């Protein structure tokens, strides 16, 4: 998501004639399911922009406990909720309204029940009629005592997906963002203006997601993905041999072989993710090449929110481009399948490489959504089971892909470790030899001070160049000597592993 800096954003092109709310009792926030709650915050400014802390992309803790930024670090009541830490007030104040260093602009969109966000989110066990009857009985509820404010980031262009956050743990005058499911948000009434009365939940969800994204965007156009073509020169420059860095193609190949071998014997998919990272690191342009678009795939595999119609169209286009013989995928089926996987928490069951097979299977076996949600869910489950069986046979395994390292396969793991250590030792030795070949031998000097005195007393440029080369040689020798110590320790470790591998099981 392209985030716009608070200082760089101009005012939104949407109408700014909203007046502050004077009667909090008539200011009603509504969820996608139709649950209603009084905002009860007199003075609330509709379409309010606030500034939250920008968090680290890896979710690591930073000063003032800044939040997870735009990662998928979710809101957890047991860690971030009102019962654990202090929360912000009903209205933004002070620094929340002012841009600043490490602050990012958000649009306030509604409220979330802080201690139990999904309190009124229907479950599969609840029928639609029962849920509707319960909503009618509850009517317009009083504001929850634990209610916290929800936001959407202000962006330069309209993003593909809607990402919602709650503000928690005020520090340094600002709140910290945490990701939240849009279905648990009570959206302010301004975001429901124009939504048809009696609209289905599916239509209401799409409406409010589109509305919030549109209102939070500075430019009311869809963001275009930048691409960069791969050239032979780019690859050659990136993988060129360097005596002081491990960037040679053969080292990349060895690393990939080791990681894939470990995956085959342990079933741990983290090795596959590491392989992908190694490949992308070796050729950065490959990730964004014009023929490797994966925005749609990533959108489909993001189960933090429902798949939008635009996201589904992007998935269908990418799948068709990757597998031209695949029939055209139906957008409504893709959205329904994604929603069923999300609500059933089945995302972990879907292997990345089998996504095209899975969606085509669902597209083939679900002729129409008229079948009803239960029948569609059954077809999705059958497709997931089929994909899981195919994945087992592809890897030559018929058991779980998450087997632990055991007495039977630990030798392979140790062998891979020994091979990697031996590669590092070889690299260190080769680097030292290359440095020596580049600079030649070091002549005898009483010390660095003696060498510098000779340098200052040099009578001509040729003499100065010779002494400067000697100075460089001294530093090269020191560098090689330090690496040699590390090489000796690694050699001891390699020999120790070799001894372990030579011992037969008793």
Question: Would you write up a description of this structure?
Answer:
This protein has 506 residues and is an alpha+beta fold. The protein contains 15 helices and 9 strands. The chain has helices at residues 77-80, 128-138, 201-216, 232-238, 249-266, 270-282, 284-287, 295-300, 309-322, 331-343, 355-365, 373-394, 410-439, 448-456, 461-502; strands at 28-30, 36-38, 49-53, 103-113, 140-141, 147-153, 164-171, 174-180, 186-187. The strands form 2 sheets. Strands 3, 4, 6, 7, 8 and 9 form a 6-stranded antiparallel beta sheet that branches. A 3-stranded mixed beta sheet has the order 1-2-5, with no helix packed on it. Helix 9 (309-322) crosses helix 10 (331-343) and helix 10 crosses helix 12 (373-394). The chain starts with 27 loop residues before the first strand and ends with a helix.
Order of helices and strands: EEEHEHEEEEEHHHHHHHHHHHHH
Structural class, from secondary structure content?
A: alpha+beta
Helical percentage: 40-55%
Strand element count: 9
Shape from CA axes? extended
Give a brief rundown of this model.
By secondary structure, this protein is an alpha+beta fold. It has helices at 77-80, 128-138, 201-216, 232-238, 249-266, 270-282, 284-287, 295-300, 309-322, 331-343, 355-365, 373-394, 410-439, 448-456, 461-502, and strands at 28-30, 36-38, 49-53, 103-113, 140-141, 147-153, 164-171, 174-180, 186-187.
């Amino acid at each position: 998501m392209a985030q716009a800096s608070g200082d760089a954003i101009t005012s939104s092109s949407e109408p700014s004639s909203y007046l502050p709310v004077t009667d909090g009792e008539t200011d009603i926030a509504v969820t996608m399911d139709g649950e209603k709650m009084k905002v009860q915050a007199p003075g609330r400014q509709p379409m309010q922009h606030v500034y939250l802390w920008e968090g680290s992309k890896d979710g690591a803790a930073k000063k003032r406990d800044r939040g997870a930024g735009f990662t998928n670090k979710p809101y957890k009541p047991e860690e971030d909720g009102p019962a654990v830490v202090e929360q912000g007030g009903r209205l933004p104040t002070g620094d929340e309204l002012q841009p600043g260093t490490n602050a990012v602009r958000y649009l306030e969109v509604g409220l979330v029940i802080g201690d139990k966000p999904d309190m009124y989110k229907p479950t599969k066990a609840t029928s639609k009629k029962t849920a509707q009857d319960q909503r009618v009985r509850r009517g317009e509820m009083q504001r929850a005592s634990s209610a916290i404010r929800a936001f959407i980031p202000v962006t330069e262009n309209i993003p593909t997906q809607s990402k919602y956050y709650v503000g928690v743990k005020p520090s340094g005058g600002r709140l910290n963002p945490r990701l939240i499911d849009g279905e648990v948000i009570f959206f302010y009434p301004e975001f429901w203006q124009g939504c048809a009365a009696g609209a289905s939940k599916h239509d209401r969800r799409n409406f409010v997601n589109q509305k919030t994204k549109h209102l939070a965007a500075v430019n009311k156009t869809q963001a275009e993905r930048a691409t960069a073509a791969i050239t032979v020169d780019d690859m050659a420059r990136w993988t060129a041999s360097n005596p002081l860095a491990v960037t040679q193609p053969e080292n990349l190949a060895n690393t990939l072989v080791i990681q894939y071998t470990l995956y085959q014997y342990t079933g741990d998919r983290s090795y596959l993710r590491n392989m992908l990272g190694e490949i992308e690191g070796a050729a950065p342009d490959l990730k964004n090449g014009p023929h490797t678009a994966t925005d749609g795939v990533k959108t489909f595999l993001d189960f933090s929110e429902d798949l939008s119609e635009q996201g589904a169209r992007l998935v269908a286009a990418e799948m068709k481009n990757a597998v031209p013989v695949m029939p055209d995928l139906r957008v409504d089926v893709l959205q329904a399948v994604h929603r069923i996987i999300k609500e059933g928490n089945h995302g972990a069951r879907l292997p990345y490489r089998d996504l095209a097979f899975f969606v085509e299977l669902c597209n083939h076996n679900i002729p129409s959504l008229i079948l009803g949600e239960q029948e569609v869910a059954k077809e999705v489950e059958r497709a997931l089971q089929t994909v899981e069986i195919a994945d087992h046979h592809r890897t030559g395994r018929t058991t779980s892909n998450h087997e632990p390292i055991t007495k039977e396969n630990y030798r392979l793991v140790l062998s891979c470790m020994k091979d990697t250590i031996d590669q590092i030792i070889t690299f260190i030795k080769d680097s030292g030899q290359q440095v020596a070949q580049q600079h030649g031998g070091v002549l005898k000097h009483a010390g660095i001070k003696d060498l510098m005195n000779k340098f200052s007393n040099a009578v001509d440029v040729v003499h100065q160049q010779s002494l400067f080369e000697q100075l460089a040689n001294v530093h090269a020798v020191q560098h090689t000597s330090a690496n040699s110590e590390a090489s000796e320790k690694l050699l001891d470790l390699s020999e120790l592993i070799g001894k372990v591998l030579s011992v037969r099981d008793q």
